[in-house]
Amino acid sequence: MRRKECVAMLLAGGEGRRLGALTKHLAKPAVHFGGKYRIIDFTLSNCTNSGIDTVGVLTQYQPLVLNSYIGIGSPWDLDRKNGGVTVLPPFMEQKGGNWYSGTANAIYRNIGFIEQYDPEYVLVISGDHIYKMNYDAMLSFHKEQKAEASIAVIEVKWEEASRFGIMSVDDAHQVTEFAEKPKEPKSNLASMGIYIFNWSVLKSYLLKDEANPDSSNDFGKDIIPSMLNEGVRVSAYPFEGYWKDVGTIQSLWESNMDLLDNETQLNLFDRSWRIYSLSPYQPPQYIAPTAKATRSLLNEGCFVYGEVDHSVLFYGVRVEKGALVRDSVIMPNVTIGEGARVYRAIIGEGTVVEPGAVIGDPNAAPSEITLVGNNETVRKEVSA
Amino acid sequence: MKRIMGVINLINEPDRLEELTLGRCLASVPFGGRYRLIDFPLSNMVNSGIEDVAVFTHHKYRSLMDHLGSGKEWDLDRKRGGLFVLPSVLDIPSGISKGDLFQFFSHRDYFYRGRQEYVLVSRSHIVCNIDYRRVLEQHEETGADITCVYHEMDDADDAIYRKLTVEADGRITAMQDRTGRLASRNVSMEMYLMSKSLLLDIVETCLSQGDDHLVRDGIMKNISRLKLFGYKHEGYTGIVNTIQSYYRHSMGLLKPELLRELFFQGAPIYTKVKDEPPTKYTESAGVSNSLVANGCVVEGVVENSLLSRGVKIHPGAVVRNCILMQNCEIGKDVVIEHAILDKDVSIDRGRVLSGATSAPYIAAKKKVI
């Protein structure tokens, strides 16, 4: 293998329990997003657009769809002879085997993969965030700072800060303190779960962490705190722009709705930073004479006869005459029957909403999102 | 189906699509919002299990090469077989490229190398979704020398095609150019299945007699000697080789039944992927009876139209009965009707442009109006 300056390790094993029915048979990074994408497309595209051509994808939970989706990486231009994408599931060894016990353990168990490329740096990212970021710019920052580890940080709302890994930094972007999900946060600078490490430094910490039976083998809980304790130079790379952890139904819905905002920070139409995805080879969408489509994102392969307002429709969605879809996310191949109404909902792949059925409530509180799972049938009498 | 090798024959294909074929061959004319004409024969072949496909190019094929690339989108980037794009060979002394049989002869290695028994020769301008496995089945059942795929047409003859007389047993007894007097609704879809040895035989016999056209010389002149059978294709068939037929068949896609038949009832039609985001409709958008590809931003009114990938319609604009190709931009308050705008055409605010159904207004690529 030719030497690589930087190898990316993409953590994609997340179960995404808080996404309920959507992740019953699907790892979180493979959940549909934004009308044509899956969540993992954003990080994979970021790698490609940042010039990183060697990516290890660490899978674990329900990996079938994710594995076949990633394939040899062609949609993201990661089908390379030297490097490219490699899917790295947990495996057995002579002395036994088990699941990845934490984020750090997942990297530890793939030291062999990383060392094939003898990299100077390792980029650790996760496959369940929506954002566009130039990792190459972060790497330059890392070098300028002469840091041994860098963490991308973003300012979050103070009231949400206790959900994140929170950092205190000095004037020179040096991290002075790090607290994972603190009850009383001292700052609102949150870790985005994006790390760049000097490989030699990271490797020594991974070995040490693995030898410690009390460790939970996690970057946020174990590796970063012990680096800070031992005086490793950890920098915080400030990121401004759109970033969202789509781990809950509410945040998944919000993030989809953010795309409909005219002033959205997450511009999918920027041709210099495209988000790549596997093409399902569908014809253009058909908008019938009886249809109305406003404030929405519609993908190819849709047939719209009814009204769609402020919604995101994936490929193969059919909205029949007299139906109304508002403030909703409709995943691939869903049929919304004649006269049906869908408000503030996320509807899973392949579901059929029968004629006249009503989902959600237009007057519900903003936090109330109705979730309908994959391949269900929503009947008129059952729904409220 | 590893028994058939495919040829998409672009030699002497008429390019009468006015501005649309100014800088490109017919095969690479955009169609249906995100496709090129050649996507249809190519996808049909691949979906029928044909793994060796040669495209015999003729001229103006830069954009075709760009579109086809390594054949990856059609799964034809193979170690064994796959896609062969074969450029036309000139007759060196005269500098003129001769008929298709001369080209077949020049590229005879393609036929020799293939291990298949049969050859399917097709053109690029017939839009349909067909399974050639059925054609081969019938070919073997009838014991035909050549099987010609045809369609019974019931609408306007604004394209260029050949007419056929098909007997009750399926045998074709007459074949005439459109100008001929033959009264028949049976139209050749210019897809001919035959054994490789027969094709090579036709190539050599005709060339030795100074003839060089497969259909005109090799088939039509020998119609009484050959067992020529017709295979009737019942599904959607769009013969697209004049501006009128192009416009009519494009607009025909606005019938959802046809759309479903062409794209959803058979196997998928593949094309070069562009990674455009889904199309965005804003508050002021008013779209009806239209086909819209990805990557568009629609802020105006669009009726009875086809928008290709990446088209922008500004607020106040009205687009009616139009075909807008990739990346066209329609300025504020523009009114445009019955028009075909090639790629990257932009219309400044406030303009009013209109053509007619029989003579749509056509703007060449990159024009600024």
Automatic annotation (TrEMBL), chain A:
<dbReference type="GO" id="GO:0005978">
    <property type="term" value="P:glycogen biosynthetic process"/>
</dbReference>
<comment type="pathway">
    <text>Glycan biosynthesis; glycogen biosynthesis.</text>
</comment>
<feature type="binding site">
    <location>
        <position position="191"/>
    </location>
    <ligand>
        <name>alpha-D-glucose 1-phosphate</name>
    </ligand>
</feature>
<dbReference type="InterPro" id="IPR056818">
    <property type="entry name" value="GlmU/GlgC-like_hexapep"/>
</dbReference>
<protein>
    <recommendedName>
        <fullName>Glucose-1-phosphate adenylyltransferase</fullName>
        <ecNumber>2.7.7.27</ecNumber>
    </recommendedName>
</protein>
<keyword id="KW-0320">Glycogen biosynthesis</keyword>
<keyword id="KW-0808">Transferase</keyword>
<feature type="domain" description="Glucose-1-phosphate adenylyltransferase/Bifunctional protein GlmU-like C-terminal hexapeptide">
    <location>
        <begin position="291"/>
        <end position="361"/>
    </location>
</feature>
<feature type="domain" description="Nucleotidyl transferase">
    <location>
        <begin position="8"/>
        <end position="261"/>
    </location>
</feature>
<comment type="similarity">
    <text>Belongs to the bacterial/plant glucose-1-phosphate adenylyltransferase family.</text>
</comment>
<feature type="binding site">
    <location>
        <begin position="180"/>
        <end position="181"/>
    </location>
    <ligand>
        <name>alpha-D-glucose 1-phosphate</name>
    </ligand>
</feature>
<dbReference type="InterPro" id="IPR011831">
    <property type="entry name" value="ADP-Glc_PPase"/>
</dbReference>
<dbReference type="InterPro" id="IPR023049">
    <property type="entry name" value="GlgC_bac"/>
</dbReference>
<feature type="binding site">
    <location>
        <position position="165"/>
    </location>
    <ligand>
        <name>alpha-D-glucose 1-phosphate</name>
    </ligand>
</feature>
<dbReference type="GO" id="GO:0008878">
    <property type="term" value="F:glucose-1-phosphate adenylyltransferase activity"/>
</dbReference>
<dbReference type="Pfam" id="PF00483">
    <property type="entry name" value="NTP_transferase"/>
</dbReference>
<dbReference type="InterPro" id="IPR011004">
    <property type="entry name" value="Trimer_LpxA-like_sf"/>
</dbReference>
<dbReference type="Pfam" id="PF24894">
    <property type="entry name" value="Hexapep_GlmU"/>
</dbReference>
<comment type="function">
    <text>Involved in the biosynthesis of ADP-glucose, a building block required for the elongation reactions to produce glycogen. Catalyzes the reaction between ATP and alpha-D-glucose 1-phosphate (G1P) to produce pyrophosphate and ADP-Glc.</text>
</comment>
<keyword id="KW-0119">Carbohydrate metabolism</keyword>
<keyword id="KW-0321">Glycogen metabolism</keyword>
<feature type="site" description="Could play a key role in the communication between the regulatory and the substrate sites">
    <location>
        <position position="60"/>
    </location>
</feature>
From TrEMBL, chain B:
<dbReference type="InterPro" id="IPR056818">
    <property type="entry name" value="GlmU/GlgC-like_hexapep"/>
</dbReference>
<dbReference type="InterPro" id="IPR029044">
    <property type="entry name" value="Nucleotide-diphossugar_trans"/>
</dbReference>
<dbReference type="InterPro" id="IPR011832">
    <property type="entry name" value="GlgDAde_trans"/>
</dbReference>
<dbReference type="InterPro" id="IPR011831">
    <property type="entry name" value="ADP-Glc_PPase"/>
</dbReference>
<feature type="domain" description="Glucose-1-phosphate adenylyltransferase/Bifunctional protein GlmU-like C-terminal hexapeptide">
    <location>
        <begin position="284"/>
        <end position="352"/>
    </location>
</feature>
<keyword id="KW-0548">Nucleotidyltransferase</keyword>
<dbReference type="Pfam" id="PF24894">
    <property type="entry name" value="Hexapep_GlmU"/>
</dbReference>
<keyword id="KW-0320">Glycogen biosynthesis</keyword>
<dbReference type="Pfam" id="PF00483">
    <property type="entry name" value="NTP_transferase"/>
</dbReference>
<feature type="domain" description="Nucleotidyl transferase">
    <location>
        <begin position="16"/>
        <end position="204"/>
    </location>
</feature>
<protein>
    <submittedName>
        <fullName>Glucose-1-phosphate adenylyltransferase subunit GlgD</fullName>
        <ecNumber>2.7.7.27</ecNumber>
    </submittedName>
</protein>
<comment type="similarity">
    <text>Belongs to the bacterial/plant glucose-1-phosphate adenylyltransferase family.</text>
</comment>
<dbReference type="InterPro" id="IPR011004">
    <property type="entry name" value="Trimer_LpxA-like_sf"/>
</dbReference>
<dbReference type="GO" id="GO:0005978">
    <property type="term" value="P:glycogen biosynthetic process"/>
</dbReference>
<keyword id="KW-0808">Transferase</keyword>
<dbReference type="GO" id="GO:0008878">
    <property type="term" value="F:glucose-1-phosphate adenylyltransferase activity"/>
</dbReference>
<dbReference type="InterPro" id="IPR005835">
    <property type="entry name" value="NTP_transferase_dom"/>
</dbReference>
